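[RESIDUES AND BACKBONE]
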Amino acid sequence: MSDDRIAVLEGKLAELERRLTVREDELDIRKLQHLYGYLIDKCMYNETVDLFTDDGEVRFFGGIWKGKEGVRRLYVERFQGRFTYGNNGPIDGFLLDHPQLQDIIHIQDDGVTALARARSMMQAGRHKDYEGDAPHLKARQWWEGGIYENTYKKVDGKWRIHILNYMPVWHADFESGWANTPHEYVPFPKVTWPQDPTGPDELIEGHWLWPTHKLNAFHFPHPITGEEMVAQRWQGDIEREKARG
């Protein structure tokens, strides 16, 4: 066999190995993100925090929680304290399902960074027989839909969540539906940590919720044209937003 043919075969083998590694990485990230959904379904917040890099962060509801301490402050001190009375696991009468859907994953050229877009459509509620005394512990049932634009890092050979960028897009009470959702159905954070003991380290400007409806930016260009995918903003919506001040 000639040296040229050997070189060609070696090149093909290297390309196949590269493509196989990319596909395995995509599968590992998909498993990681889906496991995240299963864990927060069951309010296993300690295990959720362990999915993040040490310098990870969460961008959520107009706030940024930075580093492992910030991530733990959000999931354990805020969510666990608010939803399950500090219990690391599900409690009777409280529902919080987070299906992980439509994930599009791109492994970056360095092989240790990945970007992904996905969505969740949550069903949540507290049963009338399991109410607590605080207003947020009263019986209710609601829907939530949101978009992820996440960053992942491979650390010591294992993929971890580096930036969980989850943008809730719409909410609705089950009884009245999304046609009747009030503006800022869930109040955005206004105060940062440490003034708010479980608050974010930083606030995000320009956060929005349904019935405001904008495009959550794609991390990748159009696969056919190669152009950035930018949605046009209707002038009527711009004028209405200005009028609200």
About this structure: The mean pLDDT is 94. The CA atoms of residues 50 and 114 lie 18 Å apart. The longest strand covers residues 140-155.
